[in-house]
Specification:
alpha/beta; 7-stranded mixed beta sheet; elongated
Length: 579
Protein backbone atom coordinates (compact mmCIF):
# COMPACT_ATOMS: atom_id res chain seq x y z
CA UNK A 1 0.00 0.00 0.00
CA UNK A 2 1.29 3.42 -0.88
CA UNK A 3 2.29 5.41 2.19
CA UNK A 4 1.23 8.98 2.77
CA UNK A 5 2.23 11.42 5.44
CA UNK A 6 -0.97 13.20 6.28
CA UNK A 7 -1.06 16.31 8.42
CA UNK A 8 -4.47 16.88 10.01
CA UNK A 9 -4.84 20.40 11.40
CA UNK A 10 -7.83 20.13 13.74
CA UNK A 11 -8.11 23.79 14.64
CA UNK A 12 -11.22 25.58 15.78
CA UNK A 13 -11.19 27.71 12.66
CA UNK A 14 -13.71 29.54 10.55
CA UNK A 15 -13.06 30.44 6.93
CA UNK A 16 -14.15 33.46 4.93
CA UNK A 17 -13.14 34.87 1.56
CA UNK A 18 -10.11 37.06 1.32
CA UNK A 19 -11.57 39.45 -1.26
CA UNK A 20 -13.40 41.22 1.55
CA UNK A 21 -10.19 42.47 3.13
CA UNK A 22 -7.69 45.12 2.13
CA UNK A 23 -3.97 45.86 2.17
CA UNK A 24 -2.82 42.22 2.25
CA UNK A 25 0.81 41.52 1.48
CA UNK A 26 1.07 37.98 0.06
CA UNK A 27 3.51 35.49 1.49
CA UNK A 28 6.08 33.52 -0.54
CA UNK A 29 4.34 31.00 -2.86
CA UNK A 30 4.80 27.29 -2.06
CA UNK A 31 4.37 24.90 -4.97
CA UNK A 32 4.62 21.63 -3.04
CA UNK A 33 2.21 19.79 -0.77
CA UNK A 34 -1.56 19.30 -0.84
CA UNK A 35 -4.14 21.36 1.07
CA UNK A 36 -7.76 20.49 1.87
CA UNK A 37 -9.75 23.21 3.65
CA UNK A 38 -13.00 21.88 5.11
CA UNK A 39 -12.87 19.11 2.57
CA UNK A 40 -12.20 21.32 -0.44
CA UNK A 41 -8.97 20.63 -2.32
CA UNK A 42 -7.01 23.85 -2.84
CA UNK A 43 -4.80 24.00 -5.92
CA UNK A 44 -1.16 25.12 -5.48
CA UNK A 45 0.73 27.39 -5.35
CA UNK A 46 0.00 28.20 -1.71
CA UNK A 47 0.67 31.58 -0.13
CA UNK A 48 0.26 31.86 3.62
CA UNK A 49 0.06 35.37 5.01
CA UNK A 50 -0.32 36.71 8.54
CA UNK A 51 -1.94 40.14 8.48
CA UNK A 52 -3.48 42.01 11.42
CA UNK A 53 -4.22 38.87 13.47
CA UNK A 54 -5.56 37.07 10.41
CA UNK A 55 -4.01 34.00 8.87
CA UNK A 56 -4.72 33.68 5.15
CA UNK A 57 -4.02 30.69 2.92
CA UNK A 58 -4.52 31.73 -0.70
CA UNK A 59 -7.96 33.34 -0.64
CA UNK A 60 -9.17 31.76 2.61
CA UNK A 61 -9.05 33.22 6.09
CA UNK A 62 -8.11 30.79 8.85
CA UNK A 63 -9.28 32.52 12.01
CA UNK A 64 -8.68 30.95 15.37
CA UNK A 65 -11.50 30.67 17.88
CA UNK A 66 -10.98 31.85 21.45
CA UNK A 67 -13.99 30.31 23.21
CA UNK A 68 -16.90 28.04 22.62
CA UNK A 69 -20.21 29.01 21.07
CA UNK A 70 -22.96 30.94 22.81
CA UNK A 71 -24.93 28.04 24.32
CA UNK A 72 -27.86 29.53 26.22
CA UNK A 73 -30.99 27.40 25.63
CA UNK A 74 -34.03 29.25 24.35
CA UNK A 75 -37.49 28.44 25.72
CA UNK A 76 -39.60 26.17 23.51
CA UNK A 77 -42.01 29.05 22.96
CA UNK A 78 -39.36 30.89 20.94
CA UNK A 79 -39.97 29.12 17.66
CA UNK A 80 -40.14 31.84 14.97
CA UNK A 81 -37.89 34.55 13.70
CA UNK A 82 -40.03 37.39 15.01
CA UNK A 83 -40.26 35.84 18.47
CA UNK A 84 -36.52 35.31 18.58
CA UNK A 85 -35.60 38.81 17.40
CA UNK A 86 -37.88 40.47 19.98
CA UNK A 87 -37.24 38.03 22.86
CA UNK A 88 -36.01 39.34 26.23
CA UNK A 89 -35.10 37.24 29.24
CA UNK A 90 -37.40 37.57 32.28
CA UNK A 91 -36.72 40.71 34.31
CA UNK A 92 -34.21 41.86 31.72
CA UNK A 93 -34.70 44.87 29.49
CA UNK A 94 -32.02 43.82 26.99
CA UNK A 95 -32.87 41.94 23.81
CA UNK A 96 -31.62 38.36 23.85
CA UNK A 97 -29.94 38.71 20.47
CA UNK A 98 -28.12 41.76 21.83
CA UNK A 99 -26.52 39.41 24.36
CA UNK A 100 -25.55 37.05 21.56
CA UNK A 101 -23.85 39.91 19.72
CA UNK A 102 -22.05 41.05 22.85
CA UNK A 103 -20.79 37.54 23.60
CA UNK A 104 -19.13 37.07 20.25
CA UNK A 105 -17.79 40.60 19.93
CA UNK A 106 -16.32 40.49 23.44
CA UNK A 107 -14.59 37.15 22.86
CA UNK A 108 -13.46 37.33 19.24
CA UNK A 109 -11.97 39.86 16.85
CA UNK A 110 -14.67 41.60 14.82
CA UNK A 111 -13.91 39.84 11.54
CA UNK A 112 -14.45 36.49 13.24
CA UNK A 113 -17.37 37.48 15.45
CA UNK A 114 -19.40 38.38 12.35
CA UNK A 115 -18.94 34.88 10.94
CA UNK A 116 -19.67 33.10 14.22
CA UNK A 117 -22.88 35.07 14.73
CA UNK A 118 -24.06 33.97 11.29
CA UNK A 119 -23.23 30.36 12.16
CA UNK A 120 -25.14 30.70 15.44
CA UNK A 121 -28.21 31.96 13.58
CA UNK A 122 -27.99 29.21 10.96
CA UNK A 123 -28.12 26.52 13.67
CA UNK A 124 -31.32 27.79 15.30
CA UNK A 125 -34.06 25.15 14.90
CA UNK A 126 -36.54 27.65 13.43
CA UNK A 127 -34.13 28.77 10.68
CA UNK A 128 -34.58 27.01 7.35
CA UNK A 129 -31.40 28.36 5.78
CA UNK A 130 -29.11 31.37 5.58
CA UNK A 131 -27.71 32.85 2.40
CA UNK A 132 -26.54 36.05 0.73
CA UNK A 133 -29.26 37.61 -1.39
CA UNK A 134 -28.74 39.12 -4.84
CA UNK A 135 -27.58 42.39 -3.25
CA UNK A 136 -24.96 40.59 -1.18
CA UNK A 137 -26.73 40.91 2.19
CA UNK A 138 -26.74 38.16 4.78
CA UNK A 139 -30.33 36.86 4.74
CA UNK A 140 -32.17 34.44 7.03
CA UNK A 141 -35.06 32.28 5.94
CA UNK A 142 -36.93 31.80 9.21
CA UNK A 143 -39.96 29.57 9.44
CA UNK A 144 -42.19 32.67 9.44
CA UNK A 145 -40.36 35.11 7.14
CA UNK A 146 -37.29 35.72 5.01
CA UNK A 147 -35.32 38.67 6.25
CA UNK A 148 -32.00 40.43 5.49
CA UNK A 149 -30.15 41.16 8.73
CA UNK A 150 -27.34 43.35 10.00
CA UNK A 151 -25.84 44.58 13.26
CA UNK A 152 -24.12 47.95 13.58
CA UNK A 153 -21.84 49.55 16.12
CA UNK A 154 -21.39 46.53 18.39
CA UNK A 155 -18.41 47.23 20.62
CA UNK A 156 -15.42 44.90 20.43
CA UNK A 157 -13.99 44.42 23.91
CA UNK A 158 -11.50 41.63 23.27
CA UNK A 159 -8.37 42.47 25.25
CA UNK A 160 -4.99 43.30 23.76
CA UNK A 161 -3.53 40.46 25.80
CA UNK A 162 -5.87 37.96 24.16
CA UNK A 163 -5.10 39.40 20.74
CA UNK A 164 -1.39 38.92 21.39
CA UNK A 165 -2.02 35.29 22.40
CA UNK A 166 -4.02 34.73 19.22
CA UNK A 167 -1.27 36.28 17.15
CA UNK A 168 1.39 34.05 18.69
CA UNK A 169 -0.68 30.95 17.98
CA UNK A 170 -1.28 32.07 14.41
CA UNK A 171 2.47 32.59 13.90
CA UNK A 172 3.09 29.03 15.09
CA UNK A 173 0.30 27.69 12.88
CA UNK A 174 1.65 29.55 9.85
CA UNK A 175 5.12 28.13 10.39
CA UNK A 176 3.76 24.63 10.93
CA UNK A 177 1.70 24.58 7.74
CA UNK A 178 4.54 26.05 5.67
CA UNK A 179 6.96 23.40 6.96
CA UNK A 180 4.57 20.56 6.11
CA UNK A 181 3.92 21.88 2.60
CA UNK A 182 7.61 22.34 1.94
CA UNK A 183 7.98 18.63 2.81
CA UNK A 184 5.32 17.83 0.18
CA UNK A 185 2.88 16.58 2.82
CA UNK A 186 -0.90 16.61 2.85
CA UNK A 187 -2.51 19.22 5.11
CA UNK A 188 -6.18 18.98 6.09
CA UNK A 189 -7.70 22.02 7.82
CA UNK A 190 -11.10 21.65 9.46
CA UNK A 191 -13.47 24.20 11.00
CA UNK A 192 -13.95 22.52 14.35
CA UNK A 193 -16.28 19.57 13.92
CA UNK A 194 -18.13 21.02 10.95
CA UNK A 195 -17.34 20.40 7.31
CA UNK A 196 -18.57 23.05 4.89
CA UNK A 197 -18.72 22.77 1.12
CA UNK A 198 -19.50 25.57 -1.29
CA UNK A 199 -21.16 23.24 -3.74
CA UNK A 200 -21.63 19.61 -4.64
CA UNK A 201 -18.52 19.54 -6.81
CA UNK A 202 -16.35 20.47 -3.83
CA UNK A 203 -17.95 17.74 -1.76
CA UNK A 204 -17.44 15.16 -4.52
CA UNK A 205 -13.86 16.34 -4.95
CA UNK A 206 -13.23 15.66 -1.29
CA UNK A 207 -14.81 12.20 -1.41
CA UNK A 208 -12.65 11.25 -4.39
CA UNK A 209 -9.34 12.80 -3.33
CA UNK A 210 -9.49 13.42 0.39
CA UNK A 211 -11.19 10.38 1.91
CA UNK A 212 -8.95 7.75 0.26
CA UNK A 213 -5.96 9.40 1.89
CA UNK A 214 -7.67 9.57 5.27
CA UNK A 215 -8.60 5.88 5.06
CA UNK A 216 -4.94 4.94 4.65
CA UNK A 217 -4.08 6.50 8.01
CA UNK A 218 -4.94 5.75 11.61
CA UNK A 219 -5.27 9.43 12.47
CA UNK A 220 -8.97 9.73 11.63
CA UNK A 221 -11.31 7.13 13.08
CA UNK A 222 -13.59 4.98 10.95
CA UNK A 223 -16.54 6.57 12.70
CA UNK A 224 -15.41 10.04 11.60
CA UNK A 225 -14.87 8.81 8.04
CA UNK A 226 -18.35 7.30 8.05
CA UNK A 227 -19.80 10.64 9.10
CA UNK A 228 -18.06 12.30 6.18
CA UNK A 229 -19.46 9.75 3.76
CA UNK A 230 -22.99 10.00 5.14
CA UNK A 231 -23.28 13.77 4.87
CA UNK A 232 -26.68 14.61 3.41
CA UNK A 233 -25.60 17.06 0.77
CA UNK A 234 -29.13 18.13 -0.10
CA UNK A 235 -29.64 19.40 3.43
CA UNK A 236 -26.24 20.97 3.94
CA UNK A 237 -25.34 22.50 0.60
CA UNK A 238 -27.37 24.62 -1.78
CA UNK A 239 -27.16 23.72 -5.46
CA UNK A 240 -26.20 27.28 -6.25
CA UNK A 241 -24.89 29.77 -3.73
CA UNK A 242 -25.10 33.48 -4.52
CA UNK A 243 -21.72 35.18 -4.59
CA UNK A 244 -21.56 37.92 -2.03
CA UNK A 245 -21.07 41.26 -3.72
CA UNK A 246 -17.75 42.83 -2.82
CA UNK A 247 -17.96 46.57 -2.24
CA UNK A 248 -14.47 47.18 -0.89
CA UNK A 249 -11.95 48.95 -3.09
CA UNK A 250 -8.28 48.08 -2.84
CA UNK A 251 -6.26 50.72 -1.04
CA UNK A 252 -3.77 51.15 -3.87
CA UNK A 253 -6.56 51.84 -6.36
CA UNK A 254 -8.05 54.52 -4.13
CA UNK A 255 -4.70 56.23 -3.83
CA UNK A 256 -3.95 56.09 -7.54
CA UNK A 257 -7.32 57.55 -8.42
CA UNK A 258 -6.58 60.66 -6.39
CA UNK A 259 -4.51 61.92 -9.31
CA UNK A 260 -6.35 64.90 -10.72
CA UNK A 261 -7.16 64.87 -14.40
CA UNK A 262 -4.59 66.99 -16.21
CA UNK A 263 -6.80 69.40 -18.09
CA UNK A 264 -6.45 73.17 -18.28
CA UNK A 265 -3.38 73.14 -16.02
CA UNK A 266 -5.31 71.16 -13.38
CA UNK A 267 -7.10 74.17 -11.89
CA UNK A 268 -9.73 73.39 -9.26
CA UNK A 269 -13.50 73.82 -9.28
CA UNK A 270 -15.73 75.56 -6.76
CA UNK A 271 -19.34 74.66 -5.93
CA UNK A 272 -21.86 76.41 -8.15
CA UNK A 273 -23.94 77.79 -5.26
CA UNK A 274 -23.69 78.49 -1.53
CA UNK A 275 -25.99 75.83 -0.05
CA UNK A 276 -24.69 73.48 2.64
CA UNK A 277 -27.09 70.55 3.05
CA UNK A 278 -27.05 68.54 6.28
CA UNK A 279 -29.09 65.32 6.27
CA UNK A 280 -29.60 63.04 9.29
CA UNK A 281 -32.52 60.54 9.28
CA UNK A 282 -32.19 59.41 12.93
CA UNK A 283 -30.96 62.18 15.22
CA UNK A 284 -32.52 60.29 18.15
CA UNK A 285 -30.07 57.34 17.81
CA UNK A 286 -26.54 57.85 19.24
CA UNK A 287 -24.13 59.00 17.91
CA UNK A 288 -26.38 60.70 15.35
CA UNK A 289 -27.67 62.77 18.29
CA UNK A 290 -24.55 64.95 17.86
CA UNK A 291 -26.12 66.74 14.92
CA UNK A 292 -25.78 70.23 16.42
CA UNK A 293 -22.01 69.78 16.81
CA UNK A 294 -21.84 68.69 13.17
CA UNK A 295 -23.73 71.77 12.06
CA UNK A 296 -21.63 74.08 14.25
CA UNK A 297 -18.44 72.84 12.55
CA UNK A 298 -19.67 73.99 9.17
CA UNK A 299 -21.14 77.21 10.55
CA UNK A 300 -17.80 78.14 12.11
CA UNK A 301 -15.42 76.90 9.43
CA UNK A 302 -17.36 78.48 6.56
CA UNK A 303 -17.93 81.82 8.30
CA UNK A 304 -17.40 84.64 5.82
CA UNK A 305 -17.82 82.48 2.72
CA UNK A 306 -21.49 83.33 2.24
CA UNK A 307 -22.73 79.74 2.64
CA UNK A 308 -26.09 79.01 4.25
CA UNK A 309 -27.14 75.71 5.84
CA UNK A 310 -30.24 73.73 4.85
CA UNK A 311 -31.08 70.84 7.21
CA UNK A 312 -33.05 67.62 6.77
CA UNK A 313 -33.23 66.03 10.24
CA UNK A 314 -35.54 63.49 11.86
CA UNK A 315 -35.25 64.32 15.56
CA UNK A 316 -37.92 62.08 17.10
CA UNK A 317 -38.61 58.36 17.03
CA UNK A 318 -42.26 58.81 16.12
CA UNK A 319 -42.37 56.49 13.08
CA UNK A 320 -43.01 59.43 10.74
CA UNK A 321 -39.70 59.31 8.82
CA UNK A 322 -39.37 63.09 8.64
CA UNK A 323 -36.52 62.62 6.16
CA UNK A 324 -38.56 61.30 3.27
CA UNK A 325 -37.56 59.15 0.35
CA UNK A 326 -37.99 62.18 -1.92
CA UNK A 327 -35.59 64.11 0.32
CA UNK A 328 -32.97 61.47 -0.38
CA UNK A 329 -33.73 61.25 -4.09
CA UNK A 330 -33.57 65.01 -4.56
CA UNK A 331 -30.61 65.63 -2.26
CA UNK A 332 -28.58 68.54 -3.58
CA UNK A 333 -26.25 71.28 -2.52
CA UNK A 334 -22.74 72.56 -2.91
CA UNK A 335 -21.44 71.10 0.34
CA UNK A 336 -23.28 68.05 1.63
CA UNK A 337 -22.94 66.42 5.05
CA UNK A 338 -24.59 62.99 5.39
CA UNK A 339 -24.90 61.53 8.90
CA UNK A 340 -26.36 58.03 9.21
CA UNK A 341 -25.33 54.42 9.79
CA UNK A 342 -23.80 52.16 7.18
CA UNK A 343 -22.12 48.79 6.85
CA UNK A 344 -21.19 46.24 4.19
CA UNK A 345 -24.81 46.23 2.99
CA UNK A 346 -25.13 49.90 2.13
CA UNK A 347 -26.30 53.12 3.74
CA UNK A 348 -29.43 53.37 5.89
CA UNK A 349 -32.00 55.90 4.69
CA UNK A 350 -34.77 55.32 7.25
CA UNK A 351 -35.35 53.75 10.67
CA UNK A 352 -38.56 52.38 12.19
CA UNK A 353 -39.37 50.62 15.44
CA UNK A 354 -39.10 46.84 15.33
CA UNK A 355 -42.77 45.96 15.47
CA UNK A 356 -45.56 45.15 13.03
CA UNK A 357 -46.26 48.81 12.33
CA UNK A 358 -42.57 49.51 11.75
CA UNK A 359 -42.31 46.68 9.25
CA UNK A 360 -45.27 48.05 7.29
CA UNK A 361 -43.80 51.56 7.33
CA UNK A 362 -40.40 50.29 6.16
CA UNK A 363 -42.01 48.42 3.28
CA UNK A 364 -44.06 51.51 2.40
CA UNK A 365 -40.88 53.62 2.45
CA UNK A 366 -39.49 51.23 -0.15
CA UNK A 367 -42.22 52.35 -2.53
CA UNK A 368 -40.08 51.88 -5.64
CA UNK A 369 -38.87 48.43 -4.61
CA UNK A 370 -35.19 49.28 -5.14
CA UNK A 371 -34.22 49.64 -1.46
CA UNK A 372 -33.41 46.82 0.96
CA UNK A 373 -35.73 46.34 3.95
CA UNK A 374 -33.83 44.63 6.75
CA UNK A 375 -33.76 43.98 10.49
CA UNK A 376 -30.77 45.84 11.90
CA UNK A 377 -29.50 45.78 15.49
CA UNK A 378 -27.92 49.14 16.35
CA UNK A 379 -25.81 49.74 19.43
CA UNK A 380 -27.44 52.30 21.72
CA UNK A 381 -25.81 52.86 25.11
CA UNK A 382 -24.16 49.43 25.03
CA UNK A 383 -27.37 47.60 24.12
CA UNK A 384 -28.15 46.38 20.63
CA UNK A 385 -31.65 47.49 19.71
CA UNK A 386 -33.48 46.18 16.63
CA UNK A 387 -34.96 48.50 14.02
CA UNK A 388 -36.64 48.02 10.70
CA UNK A 389 -34.39 49.90 8.29
CA UNK A 390 -34.14 50.59 4.58
CA UNK A 391 -30.74 50.33 2.93
CA UNK A 392 -29.60 51.89 -0.32
CA UNK A 393 -26.69 50.39 -2.22
CA UNK A 394 -24.44 52.05 -4.79
CA UNK A 395 -26.83 51.21 -7.63
CA UNK A 396 -29.61 53.15 -5.91
CA UNK A 397 -27.46 56.26 -5.59
CA UNK A 398 -26.29 56.01 -9.17
CA UNK A 399 -29.88 55.71 -10.37
CA UNK A 400 -31.33 58.58 -8.35
CA UNK A 401 -28.41 60.98 -8.03
CA UNK A 402 -26.82 60.48 -11.41
CA UNK A 403 -24.11 63.01 -12.19
CA UNK A 404 -25.54 65.97 -10.28
CA UNK A 405 -22.65 66.33 -7.81
CA UNK A 406 -20.08 66.39 -10.57
CA UNK A 407 -22.14 68.99 -12.40
CA UNK A 408 -22.53 71.08 -9.23
CA UNK A 409 -18.87 70.66 -8.19
CA UNK A 410 -20.18 69.52 -4.81
CA UNK A 411 -18.02 68.54 -1.83
CA UNK A 412 -19.44 65.65 0.21
CA UNK A 413 -18.63 64.78 3.83
CA UNK A 414 -19.83 61.29 4.77
CA UNK A 415 -20.22 60.68 8.51
CA UNK A 416 -21.07 57.04 7.79
CA UNK A 417 -19.31 53.82 8.71
CA UNK A 418 -18.07 52.35 5.41
CA UNK A 419 -19.98 55.05 3.51
CA UNK A 420 -16.96 55.83 1.34
CA UNK A 421 -17.18 52.31 -0.11
CA UNK A 422 -20.55 53.13 -1.66
CA UNK A 423 -20.40 56.83 -2.46
CA UNK A 424 -16.79 57.61 -3.37
CA UNK A 425 -17.48 57.54 -7.10
CA UNK A 426 -20.94 59.13 -7.09
CA UNK A 427 -19.50 62.51 -8.13
CA UNK A 428 -17.96 65.59 -6.60
CA UNK A 429 -15.16 65.54 -4.06
CA UNK A 430 -15.95 62.90 -1.44
CA UNK A 431 -14.51 62.60 2.08
CA UNK A 432 -15.46 59.48 4.04
CA UNK A 433 -14.47 56.25 5.74
CA UNK A 434 -13.87 52.72 4.52
CA UNK A 435 -14.38 51.17 7.96
CA UNK A 436 -16.18 51.82 11.23
CA UNK A 437 -15.68 55.26 12.76
CA UNK A 438 -16.86 57.12 15.87
CA UNK A 439 -18.50 60.54 16.00
CA UNK A 440 -15.60 62.37 17.68
CA UNK A 441 -13.17 61.18 14.99
CA UNK A 442 -15.55 62.32 12.24
CA UNK A 443 -15.94 65.77 13.75
CA UNK A 444 -12.21 66.19 14.30
CA UNK A 445 -11.36 65.03 10.78
CA UNK A 446 -13.90 67.22 9.04
CA UNK A 447 -12.89 70.27 11.11
CA UNK A 448 -9.24 69.72 10.21
CA UNK A 449 -10.02 69.32 6.51
CA UNK A 450 -12.08 72.52 6.47
CA UNK A 451 -9.40 74.41 8.42
CA UNK A 452 -6.98 73.63 5.63
CA UNK A 453 -9.41 74.50 2.86
CA UNK A 454 -10.44 77.81 4.47
CA UNK A 455 -6.85 78.90 5.17
CA UNK A 456 -6.93 78.68 8.98
CA UNK A 457 -4.08 76.16 8.71
CA UNK A 458 -1.05 77.17 6.58
CA UNK A 459 -2.79 80.27 5.24
CA UNK A 460 -4.32 78.68 2.15
CA UNK A 461 -1.45 76.38 1.17
CA UNK A 462 -3.85 73.41 1.32
CA UNK A 463 -7.03 75.10 0.15
CA UNK A 464 -7.91 72.44 -2.44
CA UNK A 465 -9.69 69.29 -1.26
CA UNK A 466 -6.93 66.99 -2.47
CA UNK A 467 -4.09 68.97 -0.88
CA UNK A 468 -6.05 69.26 2.39
CA UNK A 469 -6.55 65.49 2.42
CA UNK A 470 -2.92 64.76 1.49
CA UNK A 471 -1.56 67.08 4.19
CA UNK A 472 -3.95 65.89 6.90
CA UNK A 473 -3.96 62.11 6.31
CA UNK A 474 -5.37 60.18 9.29
CA UNK A 475 -8.08 57.57 8.74
CA UNK A 476 -10.21 59.61 6.37
CA UNK A 477 -10.31 58.84 2.63
CA UNK A 478 -10.86 61.16 -0.31
CA UNK A 479 -11.80 60.71 -3.97
CA UNK A 480 -12.12 63.60 -6.40
CA UNK A 481 -13.82 61.94 -9.38
CA UNK A 482 -11.28 63.47 -11.77
CA UNK A 483 -11.36 67.00 -10.34
CA UNK A 484 -10.05 69.03 -7.44
CA UNK A 485 -12.22 71.41 -5.46
CA UNK A 486 -11.99 74.64 -3.47
CA UNK A 487 -14.52 76.41 -1.26
CA UNK A 488 -14.30 79.47 -3.53
CA UNK A 489 -11.93 80.95 -6.14
CA UNK A 490 -8.75 82.71 -4.97
CA UNK A 491 -6.35 84.94 -6.96
CA UNK A 492 -3.63 83.08 -8.81
CA UNK A 493 -1.99 85.67 -11.05
CA UNK A 494 -2.64 89.08 -12.56
CA UNK A 495 -1.18 91.63 -14.91
CA UNK A 496 -0.46 94.43 -14.35
CA UNK A 497 0.71 93.80 -10.76
CA UNK A 498 -0.28 96.10 -7.91
CA UNK A 499 1.14 99.63 -8.27
CA UNK A 500 2.89 98.73 -11.54
CA UNK A 501 3.69 101.39 -14.14
CA UNK A 502 2.88 100.26 -17.69
CA UNK A 503 2.64 101.72 -21.16
CA UNK A 504 -0.34 103.67 -22.46
CA UNK A 505 -1.64 100.59 -24.20
CA UNK A 506 -1.42 96.88 -23.61
CA UNK A 507 -3.20 93.68 -22.53
CA UNK A 508 -3.86 92.35 -19.04
CA UNK A 509 -5.60 89.58 -17.14
CA UNK A 510 -6.86 88.47 -13.78
CA UNK A 511 -6.58 84.73 -13.05
CA UNK A 512 -7.97 82.62 -10.19
CA UNK A 513 -7.15 79.06 -9.14
CA UNK A 514 -10.67 77.77 -9.70
CA UNK A 515 -12.80 77.39 -12.81
CA UNK A 516 -15.76 79.74 -13.10
CA UNK A 517 -18.87 79.80 -15.26
CA UNK A 518 -17.75 81.60 -18.42
CA UNK A 519 -21.34 82.50 -19.26
CA UNK A 520 -21.47 85.03 -16.41
CA UNK A 521 -21.81 88.39 -18.17
CA UNK A 522 -19.11 91.02 -17.78
CA UNK A 523 -19.97 94.70 -17.54
CA UNK A 524 -16.69 96.46 -16.85
CA UNK A 525 -18.52 99.63 -15.76
CA UNK A 526 -20.94 97.99 -13.27
CA UNK A 527 -19.07 96.51 -10.33
CA UNK A 528 -22.21 95.34 -8.51
CA UNK A 529 -23.26 93.06 -11.37
CA UNK A 530 -19.96 92.01 -12.94
CA UNK A 531 -17.03 89.81 -11.83
CA UNK A 532 -14.61 92.58 -12.90
CA UNK A 533 -14.88 96.34 -13.30
CA UNK A 534 -12.50 99.26 -13.83
CA UNK A 535 -12.19 102.82 -12.54
CA UNK A 536 -9.63 105.48 -13.64
CA UNK A 537 -8.77 109.04 -12.75
CA UNK A 538 -8.43 110.92 -16.05
CA UNK A 539 -10.27 110.97 -19.40
CA UNK A 540 -8.78 109.48 -22.55
CA UNK A 541 -8.70 105.83 -21.34
CA UNK A 542 -10.66 102.97 -22.89
CA UNK A 543 -10.90 99.35 -21.65
CA UNK A 544 -11.86 96.99 -24.47
CA UNK A 545 -12.35 93.31 -25.30
CA UNK A 546 -13.03 92.30 -21.68
CA UNK A 547 -13.97 88.62 -21.74
CA UNK A 548 -13.53 85.21 -20.18
CA UNK A 549 -10.56 83.31 -21.60
CA UNK A 550 -12.20 80.08 -22.77
CA UNK A 551 -10.24 78.85 -25.80
CA UNK A 552 -11.82 75.37 -25.90
CA UNK A 553 -15.35 76.73 -25.56
CA UNK A 554 -16.42 74.37 -22.76
CA UNK A 555 -18.03 77.18 -20.77
CA UNK A 556 -15.42 77.11 -18.01
CA UNK A 557 -12.67 79.64 -17.44
CA UNK A 558 -10.40 80.81 -14.64
CA UNK A 559 -9.11 83.97 -16.36
CA UNK A 560 -10.57 87.29 -17.50
CA UNK A 561 -8.53 89.16 -20.13
CA UNK A 562 -8.77 92.76 -21.29
CA UNK A 563 -7.03 95.47 -23.36
CA UNK A 564 -6.40 99.12 -22.49
CA UNK A 565 -5.52 102.22 -24.46
CA UNK A 566 -4.98 105.67 -23.00
CA UNK A 567 -4.03 109.05 -24.42
CA UNK A 568 -2.86 110.38 -21.06
CA UNK A 569 -1.43 109.26 -17.74
CA UNK A 570 -3.94 107.50 -15.52
CA UNK A 571 -4.28 105.62 -12.28
CA UNK A 572 -6.47 102.58 -12.89
CA UNK A 573 -8.23 100.54 -10.21
CA UNK A 574 -9.27 96.97 -11.12
CA UNK A 575 -12.18 95.85 -8.95
CA UNK A 576 -12.97 92.13 -8.49
CA UNK A 577 -16.41 91.01 -7.33
CA UNK A 578 -15.97 87.66 -5.55
CA UNK A 579 -19.69 86.97 -5.66
Amino acid sequence: MKAYLVIIVFLLFKLTFAQEKEKIKPGTPINSGFVFIDGKYIEPPYTITLNNNELILNEYYININKKNEFTYSLPDTINTGMKFLTFKLPNDNEYFFSKVLKFYYSNYPKYQADNLIKIYISKLPFVKKTFYNDKGIFTVEWVDMTLPMSWIGVSNSISKTDLRKINKLLIKTKSYIENQLNKNNYVFIFSGNVLEFENKNDYQNFLEKGLPILKDTNIVSNQEIKKLQELNLLQNVNDTLPTKKIYYKKYSIIQNNNTIKETKNANAYSPINKQVTYINPAAYIPPLTNYQTDINIFTNKLNGYGYYIYTLIDMTNDQNADVTLDDWKNLNGSIIFIATHGDENGIILSYFNFNAEGQILANNYNQDGDLIVAASYININNQNVPFWVTYADENWFTTHWGNRFNQNNSILFLAICKGYNFLSTIGGGVFGYTSDVDASTVQSDFANILDRMNGNIQNGTYRTALSAYTNYGHSISYYGNGKDYTLCPAPKSKYPEDNATVGLQGSGWFEVDTYCDASIPINDQDFNNSPIAFEWTNPGLSITNVHWDDPDGDGLSNKIVFNWHSTSNNIVTVKINHN
